[in-house]
UniProtKB/TrEMBL annotation:
It is found in: Cytoplasm; Nucleus. Residues 489-548 form the NFACT RNA-binding domain. Residues 301-338 form a coiled coil. One of its GO terms (molecular function) is ribosomal large subunit binding. It comes from the Eukaryota. Gene3D superfamilies: ibrinogen binding protein from staphylococcus aureus domain. GO terms for cellular component: cytoplasm; nucleus; RQC complex. The lineage of its organism: Eukaryota, Metazoa, Ecdysozoa, Arthropoda, Chelicerata. InterPro entries: NFACT_RNA-bd, RQC_Subunit_NEMF. Pfam families: NFACT-R_1 (PF05670), NFACT_N (PF05833). Residues 441-464, 577-596 are annotated as: Disordered. Its main location: cytoplasm. This is Putative rna-binding protein. The keyword Cytoplasm applies.
């Protein structure tokens, strides 16, 4: 999964941010966490929020991100120097993955420098690039190394664009290891990134996975240079033209359908400002701008992590339930098999009753005559060689446990195989058969108990699994991010009959509500006390508003008086202008009439 910007991403984002943000003023700065900051910007009626994350990304965002209740020291420093400053420029330092955002001009100029490589950094400098604050101070081991600390100058001059010509490319190929691929070889030498390189290589019929050993320097250098020129042309296009946004999507099957009936989990994998050739056959989400794509990508990451984590927990819970079921089934099958084997052995003893009795007699006689175990074994081997049927049926002596094993078969069953049956010397042939029948009955009783306990255990595990799945669904639903609605910046509520009621939090919002959001058919309510909230009951259908909602608006506005000649406790309905009169702009209340 892609987690940070490439150079082409930075170039495309700078082009878009330069067109949209230059000229806007900083209203406020917030910190989401120790690495992520929000710059709230404003220009006349236009607003934007710029999100920067050290080492990872920058883009405008339409999502409501959680803000720390107490701003950090770095955030306070940004507020001190940048509030009410205008964004003058957004640029890249050389070919490095470093973005320089300038606020203010001349002596009042400040720079916010965002490093998007390695561990990243965020630096606040003055107009001469003297560091005022830095998120991650660092110094080199040697005295000559550049120091990234307060009161040191940020090394702008070190960010230089690399150049790669035919001679340099030939030298790179000559000194490369034969097993290296073109991707591994060229990616650190140029600033285009692996995705753009693969795109231009495919366009020229090459593969970035090709080995250096397969490349002829004298023949292929010209083609490689053409690929690099194509890449530079795309970089120039990204610098000068706003790009669309493309998000690569991976789809997985859900273990259980979601509440909305969907059976798939989609997860975002990569974001790009162009649709590269290598991604043309993949599932892609296209957005109107690259910034919107990056915003959508990162804003959805947390939700995707939760969804995938929930998916994994679902799989684990169901797998655990399945393992319990399979374990119980194996136990039952094993007990059934034991019963069948014991029954079969008992039947074989009964069928071969005479043979078993003769074997018992032979071995008992030998033991009664105090013949040693080794000698009994030798006598048994000699008898087997002479073809004695009793000796040949005795397969193994277990005299230490007073048992021996016989190979028995059913003479009435054609093609029956020999079965090894354990015989107890202390028991008769009938008693040995009964012993196996008793073992079968014991296994049957054990099977019944196992079946009953398995049913209870399976139901208990199933209940726990359902509870776990409910908890997973609850957790995954709580943390979903969403875009804020336009009216959430005001006081607001939605009535039981779906009327939206909005009110200003301050004088500026009161004026905004009247100018922008008061339309014909809406009900306008204001209050007697100075600075009271302006209340608007939105009525897009134009019908009559039930009196009870006007009463709610009065209470919300505190002793209302519309200011149009209505007394406290009255309300105003905004109507359409008279016939023949030019339409009045949003917020004009000259045609509002008092409703007694």
């Amino acid at each position: 999964m892609k987690s940070r910007f490439s150079t082409v991403d930075i170039v495309a984002m700078i082009c878009e941010l330069r067109q949209r943000l230059v000229g806007m003023r900083v209203i406020q700065v917030y910190d989401v966490d120790s690495k992520t900051y929000l710059f709230k910007l404003n220009r006349h009626d236009e607003k934007a929020v710029l999100l920067v994350e050290s080492g990872v990304r920058l883009h405008t965002t339409d999502f409501a991100w959680p803000k720390n209740l107490s701003p950090s020291g770095f955030s306070m420093k940004l507020r001190k120097h940048l509030r009410n400053k205008r964004v003058e420029s957004v640029s890249q330092l050389g070919a490095d993955r470093i973005v320089d955002i300038q606020f203010g001009v001349n002596e009042a100029a400040y720079h916010v420098i965002l490093e998007l490589y390695d561990r990243g950094n965020l630096v606040l400098t003055d107009g001469d690039y003297m560091i005022l604050n830095i998120l991650r101070p660092r110094t080199g081991k040697d005295d000559d190394d550049v120091k990234f600390v307060v009161r040191e100058r940020y090394p702008v001059q070190s960010a230089l664009s690399p150049a790669l010509d035919a001679e340099a490319l030939t030298d790179i190929l000559r000194f490369a290891k034969p097993a290296d691929t073109l991707r591994k070889l060229l990616t650190p030498k140029v600033s285009y990134g692996p995705a753009l390189l693969e795109h231009v290589f495919r366009a020229r019929g090459l593969s970035t996975g090709a080995k250096v050993a397969d490349v002829d320097a004298s023949r292929d250098v010209a083609t490689l240079l053409e690929c690099l020129r194509d890449a530079e042309a795309l970089m120039e296009r990204a610098r000068t033209e706003p790009s669309k946004g493309y998000i690569l999507v991976r789809v997985e099957k859900r273990v259980t359908p979601a509440d909305d009936g969907s059976t798939e989990i989609t997860s975002y994998q990569e974001f790009h400002p162009f649709l590269w050739r290598q991604h043309e056959k993949e599932r892609v989400v296209e957005l109107a701008s690259f910034s919107a794509a990056v915003d959508q990508f990162f804003s959805s990451l947390e939700m995707q992590r939760i969804s995938l984590k929930a998916h994994q927990k679902e799989k684990e819970a169901l797998k655990k339930l399945e393992n319990i079921r399979m374990d119980h089934e194996k136990r039952i099958v094993a007990l059934e098999q034991v019963q069948q084997e014991d029954k079969h052995k008992a039947e074989l003893i009964e069928i071969n009753l005479d043979l078993v009795e003769r074997a018992l007699l032979v071995l008992r006689s030998a033991l009664a005559n105090q013949i040693g175990w080794a000698e009994i074994t030798e006598l048994l081997r000699e008898a087997q060689e002479q073809g004695d049927p009793v000796a040949q049926s005795i397969k193994q002596l277990k005299l230490d446990t007073n048992h021996f094993a016989m190979l028995l078969r059913d003479p009435y069953e054609e093609g029956a195989k020999d079965t090894l049956v354990d015989i107890d010397l202390d028991l008769s042939a009938y008693a040995n058969a009964r012993r196996y029948y008793d073992q079968k009955r014991h296994a049957a009783g054990k099977q019944q108990k196992t079946l009953e306990s398995s049913t209870k255990a399976h139901k208990s595990a199933e209940k726990k699994t359902k509870e776990a799945l409910k908890q997973v669904a609850l957790t995954s639903n709580i943390a979903r991010a969403r875009k804020a609605f336009w009216f959430e910046k005001f006081f607001w509520f939605i009535s039981s009959e779906d009327y939206l009621v909005i009110g200003g939090r301050d004088a500026q919002q009161n004026e905004m509500i009247v100018k922008r959001h008061l339309n014909p058919g809406d009900v306008y309510v204001h209050a007697d006390p100075h600075g009271a909230s302006s209340i608007v009951i939105k009525n897009p259908g134009g019908g009559s508003v039930p009196p009870k909602y006007s009463e709610r608006g009065r209470h919300h506005g505190h002793l209302p008086q519309c200011g149009l000649g209505c007394q406290g406790g009255d309300k105003c309905l905004v109507g359409a202008p008279p016939s023949g009169v030019q339409d009045s702009p949003h917020g004009a209340v000259s045609d509002a009439r008092c409703l007694q």
